[in-house]
Each structure stands twice: as structure tokens, then as C-alpha cells.
Amino acid sequence: MARPKLQFWFEFASTYSYLSVMRIDTLAADAGVEVEWHPFWLGPIFKAQGWDSSPFNLYPVKGAYMWRDMERLCAARGLPFKRPDPFPQNSVLAARTALLALKHPEGPAFCRAVYAGEFGEGRSIDDPTFLGQLLSSCGLPSALVEEANSDAGKQGLRDSVAEAMRLGIFGAPSFIFEGELFWGDDRLEMTLTRAAA
Amino acid sequence: MARPKLQFWFEFASTYSYLSVMRIDTLAADAGVEVEWHPFWLGPIFKAQGWDSSPFNLYPVKGAYMWRDMERLCAARGLPFKRPDPFPQNSVLAARTALLALKHPEGPAFCRAVYAGEFGEGRSIDDPTFLGQLLSSCGLPSALVEEANSDAGKQGLRDSVAEAMRLGIFGAPSFIFEGELFWGDDRLEMTLTRAAA
Fold first, then answer.
1. In 3-state terms, chain B is what percent helix, strand and coil (to 5)?
2. Per-residue confidence at B182, pLDDT binned at 50, 70, 90?
3. How many beta carbons lie within 10 A of that of residue B51, not counting itself?
4. Which residues contact A197 (CB under 8 A, 6 or more apart)?
5. Integer Cα distance of B17 and B177 in angstroms
6. B141 preceded by cis ω (within 30°)?
7. CB–CB of B35/B8 below 8 Å?
């Protein structure tokens, strides 16, 4: 029998996506659930809500809290945490590259490597050289970075954003099971329970 | 030895506060933690962030998701759930009354009764007669509703909002342990673990 399948929608600039990216494959394997990885870009979705930056920058009190919350959650989970500068990072190239990487079995490992660099070490993820190194370290061709900026690579991310909007996704991380939306790393367990039922 | 003490800040119009109000005393007793109940009012705090209504009304996509999320969480916890109309409810009278009720040991039971009416049955909580009935059913004098609208009653809620702002509270429910802020029903377990440590 086919395992139940979950869609995992994540944005490379998103702090809470880091938390889910680093644990979803382990938790899903334990629950017997298959994960489909969907990198996307929140820029146009936030713009449609009237936001021209991360809501954590637009609402500084909420932003200050988010950094402390991330510190606590990362400490509790044994994850390194370092704030990248600037925040949010420009995540477009990473997302385009990940869409290509995810056509290979090493795709999820590449995504984890990008987040580990960005939020574990505070590295900039708009640097093609850095992304190329991460691809190589995961056993993927570093030339995927250049391919990411081809017309087809750009269209890949456009299609992904359009599909996210069609699904009603408004933030990251988000999980979709049987058309139903679950938002936030805090809902990962509930989604897996639902999918495994 | 004195038990560790947690501050619980909640707003009577807040859906996610309903979730915490209905479970905090049980979870805290299990953890050996004492709970100080602090009703407050988000109106002036949201206004300071540029919002003149609930963010769930200002951002309809997020609002639609919140209602579905609440349905799922209430179902999972065996809590009845019915959306009050209008949302958000005017919570000022309930908060002023609760501040007086909480000077008695029956205060938390009164708060639970208000939320059970509002979000379990969809009742309006700005109705003094309804609030008086709930007070009586909890063994408290129904005259607390009139006292709530006295100068002292009004000042009580003003003081509570000022203290919430001083603590950096920007949403509800919030928990404070040793000066540190935890936001959202999703953080109740983490706060209790921290307090009990």
C-alpha cells in the first residue's frame, strides 16, 4: 500500500521553516508518511497582504519576540542558531536552485544544508558560490546554480508561487494533507498524526 | 518550598486564549506550578501596532485559517466550539468583571464560564445580565458586574493593560515566567516545563 503523502511548503528566508526542514524527514519516517518538498517564495504573497518586508520587521515587537522564541526552540532541539544579516535574506536564488535539486534524491539534504548555513552559521544564501559548494557537498552538480537563473529555472519558481497561492498558503512553513492546510512548525506533529491515521 | 509562579495573560475576545483558559489549571497542577490569572485588553495594544481590529479580520486569509485551526484544535481536545457574532466580541466588561472576580478563589471558574459561553456556545459576552448569571453560577456576587463599571473597576483594567505593555505583551494568550515572555497556547507546555525545572 502506498504511504500517505504530505506536501511540505517552505521558504528559505523563513526562520520557522528552518525548524521544520531540520526535523520533518525524521518525524515523517517514524510516522510512515511520505514528504513532498515544495520550496516557494513569500515575496509576492506578502505583497498581496500589503507587506513589503517580513512581518517580523514590520512589527518590531513581534520580531524581537520571534528571535527569542527561535533561540529557545533551537536550544531545546540542539540546533545551532545564528541570525543572518540582513534579515530576511534574499531567498530567490536558493529557492530556484532547490527546485532543481529536488529532482534528485539528494534534494532534501541540499535544503537542509542551505538552512544550516543560513540560520546555523549566519551565512548569506544569495551567494551563488556558496550554493554551488553546498550542491557539491551533497553530491549534486554545482552547475544547478546557473541553471536556476535560466528562463526555465525562473519559471519553476513562478509556478511554485502560483501553486502556493492556489492552495491558500499565506506563510511558512505550511503543510498540506488531502487539500487541508496546516501552518507553522507548531502544527507539524498534528499534520503527521492526521496523515498517518 | 513555594511553588514556582507563572503569570497567565489572556484577553476575553481571543480565540486562542480560550484554549489556554480551559486547560492551564490542570496542566499547571500536574507540573506543580502556580498560576496568576491576568485578564487584559488588547484594544490599545493592537492600536499601537496600527491595527483597529483583530489581525484575523484585517488579514482575511489568516482569519479563515484561524477558524479552521480552532475547529481542529477544539475537536482534538474535546472542547465545544462555536464562532461568536460579532467577532471579536467587545471584551471590556468581561475583563473588568474578571479582575474583580479574581480577588476570590472562584475567579478562574468564572473566566472559564465566560469563555465556554463565548466560544463553546457563541454567546455575547458584553451582556451584563449574562455575566451576572455566570458570576452567580460560580458562587460569586452578581453585583460585581456593576462594580466593574465603577471608576475603580475601569482603573483596574487600565492598570492591567499598562502592566501588559510594560511586560512587552503584544498578543494573547501570553505567559510570563521570571520576566520572560512566551506567546500563544502552543507555548504553554514549554513555559510549564521551564517553570517546573
1. 55, 10, 35
2. very high
3. 16
4. none
5. 17
6. no
7. yes
| b/e B179-192 (16+ beta carbons within 10 angstroms → b) | eebbbbbbbbebbb
* B93-103 average pLDDT score: 98
- CB contact (8 A) between residue A61 and residue B168: yes
pLDDT over 80 (residue A122) = yes
Do A89 and A12 meet the contact criterion of CB atoms below 8 Å apart? yes
Q: Quick: pLDDT tens for B51-62.
A: 888 888 888 888
Q: Does A44 touch chain B (CB under 8 A)?
A: no
Cα–Cα dist A67/A70, whole Å: 5
What domains can you pick out in chain B, each with its CATH number? 5-196 (3.40.30.10)
CA closest to A184 among chain B residues: B186
Residues 6+ apart with CB under 8 A from B165: B44, B45, B48
Answer yes or no: do A170 and B72 touch at CB < 8 A: no
The mean pLDDT value of chain B amounts to 96
**CB-CB contact of B14 with B172 (8 Å):** yes
DSSP 8-class letter at A25:
H
Q: Residue A146 and residue A59: Cα distance in Å, rounded?
A: 36
Distance, CA of B4 to CA of A40 (rounded, Å): 44
